[in-house]
Amino acid sequence: TSVHWHGLILPNAMDGAADVTQDPIQPNQSFTYEFIAGQSGTYFYHTHDHPDRQQALGLYGALIIDPAAPQDIPAYDLEYTIQLQEWLEREGYTFPAMLMEGGLPNYFTINGKSYPTTDTINMKVGQKIRIRFIATNNNFVHPMHIHGGPFLIVATDGNLVPPTARIEQDTVNVGPGQRYDVIWTAREPGKWLLHCHLL
Fold this sequence. Notes:
Blueprint: E1 3-6, E2 41-47, H1 51-54, E3 60-65, E4 78-90, E5 93-96, E6 107-110, E7 128-135, E8 142-146, E9 151-156, E10 159-160, E11 168-169, E12 171-174, E13 179-185, E14 194-196
Parallel strand pairs: 4-7
Antiparallel strand pairs: 1-2, 2-3, 4-5, 4-6, 7-13, 8-12, 8-14, 9-10, 9-11, 9-13
């Protein structure tokens, strides 16, 4: 396998593109990636050797790089990272969802879980939460929606949205490899659903 640091600007030899910038890492071998994280924001890492299979089977993860200096971003009380993924369940077996091979996904997960086993986020009225949507999937655009009021988009693909360009929306289309940071306010008490609007 190999590891690609999605969205980061780094030396070419550390990019992790198997058979392009490095040989694939073989079983029982290792490779050390070394670079200085010159950016802050929401990123992720994933395999770059047969990513259609390996990434869907779990070789990915969030990479949150904190800024060295305070950023011009609205205050928030909680933070939660959401990684989106897709699976194909057929005849009692689970497979990576690979559209190019006829494998249309029929399970969609948030942090490796599907409803009703997904996490519950507990908040109080008036609190704000920063949600980091990361589309670690390879197939579909996921229109992510939070019931109970709109959210403010504060960052896209690891880059802050300038304050004058920030907009409130109730749905954001998160395509494969994309990242969105949003801030949502709990305006009313109740159980509010967070979901992909296609599902």
